[in-house]
């Protein structure tokens, strides 16, 4: 760290602070390459966008860093909270990966020197500049639980403008701006879990499903390699690469299916039937999207891996439904022996079996068709297709009867 | 990400190429970079057309971007700049189509004297917007391969397209179409060893 003091630092910091405070609709922060100062202010502000010329980045950061650590290491020193906040603003905008600085901000929020709502705004700027910054996401999560706990009972879970919707927006922007952004997706997962545990009505799972599907169509091969993530989600998928977005969606679908099935009692058979077809409709939608993506994009392993997962899910799904119908039949026999009821059960079971056969056949036919297309157009993709078929064999995916 | 950034129609003179009409989508870039990004797209499109022989189709990869170019026998050319995930076949279908339409509106004899500001060809913006989603735009051509993909020449870097003895850094520093600001952007992007710092 250089020893010399940067005389313009305080002026630049307060310029930045002014822009941030005065413009609540500020959207972005970025560093503009510029080799020398040309005697002009390095702070640019245009149309809700904030820019800082690159020549002042190093001296400015060094200045803020030194001030903050001097303060932190010397317990007897006191400084105005507003001054500390200003140094932190400068330091974190330029380098947001320092946990100590975020902790200092947390302390200021706790002692009511900083407004939580303004902190959401500030960390959003940081995430625009560094969309993969874990510390900033962690800070937002902390802020969320801070406001939800402090105003306990005051927030309106039915409100359309829930703070969670804003979090999803940010997660989307960050995932757009940085490919394979694990932190953005785990933030998303956290928000959805929070929605469950805090009983928020919005964002609905339905919109989340649609949005993430749309996102996946825009980012074909955005995948993440992460052992932990994978194991947590699907311990049974044995591929190394998994499509982050898709995984996220499907885990929800899967959870949802399981939950729905558990929730319904055995007497409400009809309802089960509708639930079953509804769950299936999600699978179909995903399948169709995967089909058209493979047709459009050459040679993307993520798409074929995702297709494996779809095949696997279909198998699991059929197995679970099959067994539940067996159970049902057993139940029926012991409780009620009337012929009429038996017939109803039989027809339902038949419906489901026929439906399964159709599905499997359709899946096979379609797979063969696109496999043909893929093998012809690309040598590398041919290998992917072969692997895919091997996988189908290994999980025992075949047409019954 | 599947994204289109620029679509331009150019006329290839024996010595240089002139832009006849162009459309850009630079919304995904940070605000202060947009101007430079646009200048670069113009610069790259011109450079690449000047170095592509007529009747050739090329797709050139540079960092996170892909330049698709086609110069027709009559020296009309089109360049599409996309990210590397955008399907090649759709990209080339698009530039062929755009040129056909342009040639139908402006006959060959006018190309030499046409300038970008005079040209009225708003459809180019419509095309750029519509083809952002290759699924929608490509619904008809998806299954039938009317365009022979094997005819597209692939290059892994822009340098591969340049003539012997040329290099990109030099071309950039000599270029008059690029502002000092844009050249500074380029240098920074080079220093961090990728185009990523220019990327959104």
From TrEMBL, chain A:
<dbReference type="InterPro" id="IPR002088">
    <property type="entry name" value="Prenyl_trans_a"/>
</dbReference>
<keyword id="KW-0677">Repeat</keyword>
<dbReference type="GO" id="GO:0008318">
    <property type="term" value="F:protein prenyltransferase activity"/>
</dbReference>
<dbReference type="Pfam" id="PF01239">
    <property type="entry name" value="PPTA"/>
</dbReference>
<keyword id="KW-0808">Transferase</keyword>
<protein>
    <submittedName>
        <fullName>Protein prenyltransferase alpha subunit repeat-containing protein 1</fullName>
    </submittedName>
</protein>
<comment type="similarity">
    <text>Belongs to the protein prenyltransferase subunit alpha family.</text>
</comment>
<keyword id="KW-0637">Prenyltransferase</keyword>
<dbReference type="GO" id="GO:0005737">
    <property type="term" value="C:cytoplasm"/>
</dbReference>
Automatic annotation (TrEMBL), chain B:
<dbReference type="GO" id="GO:0005794">
    <property type="term" value="C:Golgi apparatus"/>
</dbReference>
<keyword id="KW-0449">Lipoprotein</keyword>
<dbReference type="InterPro" id="IPR010908">
    <property type="entry name" value="Longin_dom"/>
</dbReference>
<keyword id="KW-0175">Coiled coil</keyword>
<dbReference type="Pfam" id="PF13774">
    <property type="entry name" value="Longin"/>
</dbReference>
<dbReference type="GO" id="GO:0005484">
    <property type="term" value="F:SNAP receptor activity"/>
</dbReference>
<dbReference type="GO" id="GO:0006888">
    <property type="term" value="P:endoplasmic reticulum to Golgi vesicle-mediated transport"/>
</dbReference>
<keyword id="KW-0636">Prenylation</keyword>
<dbReference type="InterPro" id="IPR011012">
    <property type="entry name" value="Longin-like_dom_sf"/>
</dbReference>
<keyword id="KW-0488">Methylation</keyword>
<keyword id="KW-0564">Palmitate</keyword>
<comment type="similarity">
    <text>Belongs to the synaptobrevin family.</text>
</comment>
<keyword id="KW-0472">Membrane</keyword>
<dbReference type="InterPro" id="IPR042855">
    <property type="entry name" value="V_SNARE_CC"/>
</dbReference>
<feature type="domain" description="Longin">
    <location>
        <begin position="9"/>
        <end position="128"/>
    </location>
</feature>
<dbReference type="Pfam" id="PF00957">
    <property type="entry name" value="Synaptobrevin"/>
</dbReference>
<protein>
    <submittedName>
        <fullName>Synaptobrevin like protein YKT6</fullName>
    </submittedName>
</protein>
<feature type="domain" description="V-SNARE coiled-coil homology">
    <location>
        <begin position="139"/>
        <end position="199"/>
    </location>
</feature>
């Amino acid at each position: 760290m250089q020893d010399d003091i940067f005389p313009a630092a305080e002026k630049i910091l307060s310029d930045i602070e002014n822009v941030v405070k005065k413009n609540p609709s500020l959207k972005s922060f970025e560093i503009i390459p510029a080799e020398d100062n040309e005697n002009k202010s390095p702070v640019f502000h245009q149309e809700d966008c904030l820019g800082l010329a690159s020549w002042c980045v190093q001296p400015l950061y060094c200045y803020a860093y030194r001030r903050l650590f001097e303060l932190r290491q010397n317990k007897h020193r006191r400084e105005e909270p507003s001054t500390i906040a200003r140094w932190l603003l400068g330091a974190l905008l330029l380098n947001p990966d320092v946990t100590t600085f975020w902790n200092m901000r947390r302390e200021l929020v706790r002692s009511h020197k900083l407004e939580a709502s303004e902190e959401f705004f500030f960390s959003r700027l940081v995430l625009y500049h560094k969309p993969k910054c874990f510390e900033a996401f962690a800070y937002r999560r902390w802020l969320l639980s801070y406001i939800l706990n402090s105003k306990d009972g005051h927030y309106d879970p039915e409100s359309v403008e829930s703070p969670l919707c804003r979090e999803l927006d940010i997660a989307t922007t960050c995932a757009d701006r940085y490919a394979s952004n694990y932190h953005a997706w785990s933030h998303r997962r956290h928000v959805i879990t929070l929605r469950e545990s805090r009983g928020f009505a919005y964002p609905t799972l339905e919109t989340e499903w649609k949005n993430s599907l749309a996102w996946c169509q825009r980012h074909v091969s955005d995948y993440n390699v992460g052992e932990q993530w994978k194991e947590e989600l699907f311990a049974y998928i044995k591929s190394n690469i998994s499509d982050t977005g898709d995984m996220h969606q499907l885990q929800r679908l899967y959870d949802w299916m399981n939950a729905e099935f558990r929730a319904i009692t055995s007497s409400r058979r009809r309802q089960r039937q509708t639930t079953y077809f509804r769950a299936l409709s999600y699978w179909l939608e995903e399948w169709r999207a995967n089909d058209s993506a493979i047709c459009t994009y050459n040679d993307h392993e993520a798409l074929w891996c995702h297709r494996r997962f779809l095949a696997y899910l279909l198998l699991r799904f059929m197995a679970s439904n099959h067994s539940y119908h067996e159970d049902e039949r057993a139940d029926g026999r012991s409780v009620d022996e009337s012929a009429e009821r038996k017939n109803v059960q039989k027809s339902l079971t038949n419906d489901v079996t026929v439906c399964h056969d159709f599905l499997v056949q359709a899946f096979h036919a379609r797979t063969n068709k696109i496999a043909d297309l893929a093998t012809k157009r690309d040598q590398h993709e041919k290998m992917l297709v072969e692997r895919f078929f091997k996988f189908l064999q290994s999980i025992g995916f075949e047409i019954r009867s | 990400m599947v994204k289109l950034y620029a679509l331009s129609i150019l006329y290839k003179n024996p010595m240089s190429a002139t832009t006849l009409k162009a459309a850009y989508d630079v919304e995904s870039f940070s605000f202060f970079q947009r101007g430079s990004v646009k200048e670069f797209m113009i610069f790259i499109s011109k450079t690449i057309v000047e170095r592509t022989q007529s009747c050739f189709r090329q797709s050139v990869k540079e960092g996170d971007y892909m330049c698709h170019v086609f110069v027709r026998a009559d020296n009309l050319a089109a360049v599409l700049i996309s990210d590397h995930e955008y399907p090649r076949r759709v990209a080339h279908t698009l530039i062929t189509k755009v040129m056909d339409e342009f040639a139908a509106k402006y006959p060959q004899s006018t190309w030499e004297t046409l300038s970008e500001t005079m040209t009225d060809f708003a459809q180019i913006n419509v095309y750029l917007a519509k083809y952002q989603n290759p699924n929608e735009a490509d619904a008809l051509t998806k299954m039938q391969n009317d365009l022979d993909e094997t005819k597209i020449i692939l290059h892994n870097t822009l340098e591969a397209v340049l003539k012997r003895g040329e290099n990109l850094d030099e071309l950039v520093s000599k270029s008059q179409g690029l502002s000092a600001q844009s050249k500074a952007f380029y240098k920074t992007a080079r220093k961090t060893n990728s185009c990523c710092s220019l990327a959104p």
